Amino acid sequence: MELTFVGAAREVTGSCHLLRVNGHTVALDCGMFQGRRQESAEKNRRLPVPLAELDAVVLSHAHIDHSGRLPFLVAEGYGKTIWATNATRDLSAIMLADSAHIQEKDAEFLAKHNKEVLPPLYGMRHAIRTLELMVGVPYGKTFDVVPGVQATYIDAGHILGSASVILDCVEGPVKKRLVFSGDIGRKGLALIRDPEIPSGADALIMESTYGNRDHESVEGSRARLAEVIRTTAARGGRVLIPAFAVGRTQEMIYAIHSLVREKAIPAIPVYVDSPLAIDATSVFEMHPEILDRSEAMVAEVKELFKFDLIHYTRDVEESKAISRANGPMIVIAASGMVENGRILHHLTHGASDRRNTILIVGFQAEHTLGRRIVERQPMLKIFGEEVPLHAQVEIINGYSAHADRGELASWLGAVKDTSPNLGPTWLVHGERNVQDEFQTALAAKGYNVACPEPGTTHTF
After folding, report:
1. Residue 240 phi, psi (nearest 5)
2. Which of 118, 232, 242, 352 meets the CB 3.0–4.6 Å disulfide criterion with 237?
3. Do 140 and 169 sit in the same domain of this protein?
4. Based on the domain organization, do 295 and 336 belong to the same domain?
């Protein structure tokens, strides 16, 4: 039994790991690489494995750095099953279509301006075909992936539909249980249930995004959010929140809604300026059965994502009107790492205004505009133009949907408690320095931990 680490190996994006059992190959995720544009574009155009060898894909969740290259596989000729949870399939329907649309529009723009044009990685028809290949499975139901591999999804507590994958592998007389953590969530997150702990693991692929730092508490983050909104509104400014359309946007809507209900913030307009986020919010409304019913507001409020102050702006002209409006407001817009989407337009108009606050509530990968904002670089390059950064920059990492250092260690400890034969743990989905620190800390506790390099193969 072999694992080859193709993506999210010694980096955060491009999640893709190849499992080989009985001569069959299964891809665990097939995500988009993000970061330096030229480097990412080259990586995204490389197939993780010759398609003749690929027998199935098992998807952990819908975020584009885990799912975004699935239509590329399809465009290149892949036609076999893609497994996902039901909610992941529903979210992928909108996210992959949005990804295809962005690529087609980018190619059109470059062609129009006589710049070097790379054809889109895939188009809308490939995104649609990907959904036709996707089979939704509920949590806790075991399914046959390929001969000798059965899989079961359990809730990873990261975003709606996110899963850790239990893979029971049989090759001749050898039986092994491999667990792929997917992205591990946090206890106490709004809307989403706490992560489930897989048991009986013989080997483990584990994410490590925040393996060298701790988040502030969820309650502390909520208090800081209220403070940022109050302070910015008092000086007549806007709170500009770049947020992933899936997961983070819904968490922010929920948090702001709860603060409005408590009258903890002033009654100012709240704009959700992202067609994708609007569609994703509809998917959340479609899946109340997997929301966290232990939360009072989830249990008591019928319309979690609708209240008097909130406005969903799908139309481009409506989006432009936000920039022309006066007075304090909150604007939530994609993308989460500030690489594309409508948040760029709001920053073009708002980053130079000292009254405004840019509120960062999610992980910002290296070489992204979001990371440059976090670093408070004095000039931001947006649409090829230099925009001075005079707005306040606030960072609240307690809204991260990723477990932090302590939470990751606790999760691994809980896996170990139920897995007496736990062997190797491979750290993925993390920057090098983060993984190195986390590996050192875990090794000191007696874990057998490695950080696989891209393209390397390991047996278990």
Report:
1. -100, 120
2. 232
3. yes
4. yes
Q: Which domain holds residue 385?
A: 218-399
Average pLDDT over residues 428-433: 96
Residue 362 in this model has a pLDDT that exceeds 90: no
- Quote the number of domains for the chain: 2
Segment 433-454 mean pLDDT: 98
Six-digit token string for 4: 């080859």
pLDDT in tens, 294-311: 999 999 999 999 999 999
Whether residues 56 and 117 fall in one domain: yes
Res. 460: pLDDT tops 90 = yes
- Copy the structure tokens of residue 143: 């399914």
Q: Do residues 202 and 421 touch, judged by C-beta distance below 8 A?
A: yes
d(CA 213, CA 428): 16
**292 contacts 191 by C-beta, under 8 angstroms:** yes
User: Quick one: 133 and 261 in the same domain?
Assistant: no
- 278 and 207 together in one domain: no
Residue 460 has which token pair? 């278990």
Beta carbons within 8 Å of 207's beta carbon, 6+ residues apart: 181, 182, 183, 184, 402, 408, 427, 428, 429, 430
Neighbours of 413 (CB within 10 A): 13
d(CA 351, CA 388): 7
Single-letter residue type at 256: I
**Strands 379-382, 425-428: pairing kind:** unpaired
Band the pLDDT of 105: cuts 50, 70, 90: confident
